[in-house]
Target: Nucleoside hydrolase
Amino acid sequence: MNPLWIDTDMGFDDLASVLAVTGTPGWSVAGLSLVAGNAPLPVVIDNALRSAACFGWSFPIHAGAAGPLVGELETAQAILGGDAMRSAGRSLPPQRTTLSSEDAVGALAAWLRASPTPATILALGPLTNIALLMRRHPELAARIGELMWMGGSAGPGNHTAAAEFNAYVDPESINEVLAAGLPLAMVGLDTCRQVRVDKADADALRALGTDRGMLIGDLLEGYVRIAGADGRSTMALYDPTATAALLAPGSISFTPAHLVAECSGEHTRGMTVVEWRVPRKAQANARIATTADAAAVRAVVLGGLAAVAR
Ligand code: BDR
Ligand code: CA
Model:
């Protein structure tokens, strides 16, 4: 079994990522750490606990940072809806499981210490929790084999013209994580946008005829409708594309480069600036995703969702 720690701000594409992991043979979730991002932390916690009850998760769930290292939290609720799930009338059933009493950074540190080999963290939101982990336990950098992150962009942004949402929310955390020497692999917007889902994918999950298939299908359709209210557009698969980089090795291609997050630009705060000309202009400090094998990503993600739904 390959155990993964997932750090998440629990919108629908985060949930789809967790489900893809639990639905893929050979992979398991060791724990979830929650971070404010898509929505304020109480909403993120509520989504995680409702999901745990609905899908029978037994791994621990830990509350983390309620806001970025610097400044005020800006959420994506204007796009994703109040519950950050764009659930169009469908909501996850009420929570029954409880949050762990241990905070995210403490729990993640304990897991890293106990791991027999350098461990993999999948981060699907702002990197606040990971930066706080490095502030409190810098010696644990060596215990992290890879930090796979959905965030940033080597092209344009989405939250602003220059910045992807996860990067925009907490750009200082990106630079702290890099300064700590963590082996960061960035799967940015430009790569995720190569992988598309549409209403037919939601229909296929509903056609399984199970309660979970109906729920995941309805939530997926709400997600697709972010791209167009009539449901006819295709939508980029964000967090699950980064997840597929782990579940289906080779489905995402990476190139070493030097990465820095812009923290002060008036129009460019949160922009992830990639210097590809390494080592001529700078030393590589990250692996940056460049291309996605869309069929391979879709196969592992939608296959995982279907396995959970059956
Ligand atoms: C990222 O922002 C969030 O809204 C999604 O969950 C994803 O992590 C895409 O920019
Ligand atoms: Ca996310």
In short: The mean pLDDT is 96.
